[in-house]
Amino acid sequence: MEKKFRYLVPGDYMADPAVHVFDGKLYIYPSHDRESGVEENDNGDHFDMCDYHVFSTEDVMNGTVTDHGVVLKVSDIPWAGRQLWDCDVARKNGNYYMYFPLKDRNDIFRIGVAVSDCPEGPFIPQPDPMRGSYSIDPAVFDDGNGNYYMYFGGLWGGQLQRYRNNKALECAAFPADGEPALPSRVVKLSDDMLQFAEEPRPLVILDEHGQPLTAGDNARRFFEASWMHKYNGKYYFSYSTGDTHLLCYATGDNPYGPFTYQGVILQPVVGWTTHHAIVEYKGKWYLFHHDCVPSGGTTWLRSLKVCELEYDAEGKIKTIESV
Ligand code: FUB
């Protein structure tokens, strides 16, 4: 049977979905793409987003998708420079915490937090970014036992190559092809959800021989777009390979890893970036993602999309061909 895809917000450009189920309703927290006129470059300056909307639905493939409007904007954030990239939201004790990457006034990406008492927002930003935060693409995983973990990081425009051991380098540095790839980071959040509870740790992805994926293995190594979900007791870390345009995943036995590479979730879509969320809702699993088909291939004008995701009997995700 042919796979069914649905564009969720046909009237606007939305990308980088983070998706959660709160009180039986499915909420989508995407980036909000726009035509800002900023010229395309390797730094990603053309992804010049300035606000977030929240969407909700109770029927993923066929139901109404409600737009709850603008919930946070750059001009509301006290430490803002520019570029609101991929966000995520977590719930704890009746409060909702939105985590967002934004360049500060020195053009350095930091991760900020904004708080609301409902999943639709609006979200009120904290006065400063999270202490010790850097790079982009925060994804927050609720392990269901009172512990919340943030996965973050992104290469190139995401600035991860500027850091080692959580310290800024004098100059950005990429490992040689045969050296271990630059990893995503994982960090437990503090009880109040507003800070890191510890130093971020590298999230290591091993190959089939138990060796870390190398920097030259760019069809498998991490680039950006971290996401974590659990299936049958296993932890599934999924991510984009960036310049090879794949969504891949690796599995592990705990939130910190190590994780072992498993395969491709989604083949390249139209457009340079690929980014996703994997969620179970009403007994089915879904892959939320984006592509640039509606904008005729304009990389910075992406459209939100969803399809069902399936596992085989061993828990392997079946690769999805994009259309
Ligand atoms: O939306 C800007 C950036 O593009 C995101 O942070 C990356 O994951 C990529 O999708």
Automatic annotation (TrEMBL):
Keywords: Carbohydrate metabolism, Glycosidase, Hydrolase, Polysaccharide degradation, Xylan degradation. One of its GO terms (molecular function) is hydrolase activity, hydrolyzing O-glycosyl compounds. GO terms for biological process: xylan catabolic process. It comes from the Bacteria. Belongs to the glycosyl hydrolase 43 family. PANTHER family: ENDO-1,4-BETA-XYLANASE (PTHR43772), PUTATIVE (AFU_ORTHOLOGUE AFUA_2G04480)-RELATED (PTHR43772:SF2). This is Xylosidase/arabinosidase.
